[in-house]
Amino acid sequence: MIPTAFDYVRPGSLDEAVSALAGGGEDAKVIAGGQSLLPLLRLR
After folding, report:
1. pTM for the complete prediction?
2. What is the pLDDT of residue 31?
3. What SS3 string covers 1-40?
4. Could you read off the pLDDT of 1-44 as tens digits, one per residue?
5. Which CATH number does the domain housing residue 37 bear?
6. Which of helix, strand or coil describes residue 41?
7. How many domains does the chain have?
């Protein structure tokens, strides 16, 4: 299965992270480490 397109944001501060999450709506996710990235994308 080919994952759908997504926006990647790499915030430089906590304030930027909070703003990115708020702007992403309910579909916004925090990914740390990357182990869960591909399974999450496949479930979309």
Report:
1. 0.61
2. 78
3. CCCCCCCCCCCCCHHHHHHHHHHHHHHCCCCCCCCCHHHH
4. 566 787 889 999 999 999 999 998 888 888 777 677 777 777 76
5. 3.30.43
6. helix
7. 1
Instruction: Report how far Cα 40 is from the mean position of its chain's Cα atoms.
Output: 9
Gap between the Cα atoms of 4 and 42, Å rounded: 8
Host domain of residue 39: 1-44
pLDDT at 43: 73
Q: CB neighbours of 30 closer than 8 A, spacing ≥ 6? A: 17, 21
pLDDT score for 22: 94
CA atoms of 42 and 15, how far apart (whole Å) = 29
Q: Residues 3, 42: contact at Cβ < 8 Å?
A: yes
